[in-house]
Every structure is written in C-alpha cells, then in structure tokens.
Amino acid sequence: MHRSRLDLRTWFIAASDVITAYAKGLEEENLTGHGLAHRYEISYVAAHRLRTALVKDLRQPGNLLRACICTEELPVSREPNLAPEDWYAVLWAAK
To answer: pTM of the prediction?
Structure first.
C-alpha cells in the first residue's frame, strides 16, 4: 500500500476478494492477474503486484491488512432477506 497509486478502497476490496477466494478454495480461478485487472479496471502489472502484495501481507501475522480485516468466522449469521443497513446494525450490536 505504501507509495501505491491505487486508492485505499481498492486495496480493501481486493483484500476481501482474496480472503473470500481462499476461503472458498477458488484462488486459482478467481485471482488471476487478468481477472483482477478487469475487475478493478487497472493494468495487468498493477493487478499482479496487488495480488502478490495482498497474499504476502495476509499470510504473515501482525501485518497491516491482516490486523485490519476480520478473517475469523462472524459470531452471528445473516438472514438472506436482511437489508444491508440492517445487517450492519446486527454486526455492530454483536459482542
């Protein structure tokens, strides 16, 4: 993230996608450089660097992204018909 031209939002969305792909075992299909470049509308080189940096940072304990993003299962379950704003209220109320 240091000296990156990508905005912080892109980093966190990409980190969420990386975590989801690894959790579902779909990292080979979902985390290709060309796929990420198309999804985030960035160059292939930037997408490859983004993926490499994210995977490296998320694998090592104590790094910035791993400390900022919850990688554990949530203590609450989401009802399928729950609106996003209501879901966030449930998450904030969970202890």
So the answer is: 0.56
How many angstroms separate the CA atoms of 31 and 51, rounded? 7
89 occurs within a structural domain? yes
Q: Is residue 2 part of a domain?
A: no
Which residue shows structure tokens 């694998």?
A: 59
Looking from the CA of 69 toward its CB, the CA atoms found within 13 Å total 21
Question: How many domains, the chain?
Answer: 1
Read off the tokens for 31: 């985390």
Site of tokens 């992204």: 65
The answer to whether 16 touches 69, Cβ cutoff 8 Å, is yes
Joined together, the tokens standing for residue 93 give: 């109320």
Residue pLDDT, tens place only, 39-69: 888 889 888 888 888 888 777 776 666 666 6
